[in-house]
Amino acid sequence: MAENWESSKKQARRPWGGRPKARFALWRPAAVAGVELQIGTQIKAYALPVHFHDSYQFDVMLEGERSWERRQGRCVVGAGRLSVAHPGEAHAVNVVGEVNSFRTMHVDAARLSGTYEKIRGRRQLPRFPFDISAMPTISRFLHAHRMMECDEGPAAENALTGFLDYLVRNHADGECWRSEAIKHTQLRRARDFIDQNLSHEIALGTLAAVAAISKFHLVRQFTSAYGLPPHTYQLRARIARARELLAKDVALKRVSAELGFADQSHFGRHFRKLTALTPAEYQRRVTGRSCADLVIGQT
């Protein structure tokens, strides 16, 4: 059934064969919708500034360590543990081991809420511990990742379903993710206004008027609730939306214009800073037009 951590460590490689050093691969499996996968092998330097995803992020270090900066503070997760970042949860990451290899999986939030409804009887975004050490869970994650790497048929879908079902049954705590932030009606209005106006520059005074609080309190409370000040949140939300548009093969120029970037160069700088890829490289990979590994720092 599920492979163990040691066997996955030995097999950490790109999805198209071989085991190059200091390489990074990213792709969306054709057989499974709503999933994005990453593999890093023998990487010495890989860091992303504070950002968030609309999806759940699951990550297992196979060797080395990953440093996380979260609203709760900084922590370092070593090899053989599963880390979870929830949708919209601001975080920064940096590998800190001498040599690092990892497998990462992004899964659409809608899929997790559907899994939760199937198992617990109500539809909500499940909340998980950040750091999971249970080997049965980690083994199922690695098995699903490997199956989606190598298999283009129903077996890949079944492996992912098995992992998500087990994760919800054994680790969802019954609370809805973002339950604390949702209580802040004023902040929710501000966040929703940003999400609905990604292509426009929003003055802090305008946002404060929407939230019906002072600019000072808006910045302080918004940053506390969402991990980012409003302006940075909007920029990160633009990049998150750009990833989805690029995955749908929307032209780069159109993506840049629709999301309010000054030009494609401005778009490209911010996108690469948060993904380690240029928009064009990211699009080639997630649409299946590129199968070559990426050498970190040379894209």
Q: Main traits of this protein?
A:
about 300 residues; alpha+beta; Jelly Rolls; Arc Repressor Mutant, subunit A; 2 domains; seven-stranded antiparallel beta sheet; four-stranded antiparallel beta sheet; 12 helices; 11 strands; globular; disordered C terminus
Tell me what you see in this structure.
The chain is an alpha+beta fold. The chain has 2 domains: 173 residues, Sandwich (Jelly Rolls); 108 residues, Arc Repressor Mutant, subunit A, CATH 1.10.10.60. Helices cover 45% and strands 20% of the residues. The chain is built from 12 helices and 11 strands. Strands 10-7-4-9-2-1-11 form a 7-stranded antiparallel β-sheet. Strands 3-8-5-6 form a 4-stranded antiparallel β-sheet. A hairpin with a 7-residue loop joins strand 1 and strand 2. The longest helix is centred in the middle third of the chain and has 18 residues. It is globular, with a radius of gyration of 19 Å. The protein starts with a helix and ends with a strand.
The proportion of residues forming helix, as a percent range, comes to 40-55%
β content, as a range? 15-25%
The chain-level structural class is: alpha+beta
Low-confidence spans: 12-18, 294-299
* CATH top level class name of the largest domain: Mainly Beta
Number of helices: 12
- Mind telling me the C-alpha Rg? 19 Å
CATH architecture descriptor of the largest domain: Sandwich
Describe the secondary-structure layout.
Layout: H1 5-11, E1 23-27, E2 35-43, E3 47-51, E4 56-63, E5 65-70, E6 73-78, E7 82-85, E8 91-95, E9 100-107, H2 109-120, E10 131-132, H3 135-150, H4 154-171, H5 179-182, H6 185-196, H7 204-211, H8 215-226, H9 230-247, H10 252-258, H11 264-275, H12 279-286, E11 294-295
Antiparallel strand pairs: 1-2, 1-11, 2-9, 3-8, 4-7, 4-9, 5-6, 5-8, 7-10
Helix pairs in contact: 2-4, 3-4, 6-7, 6-9
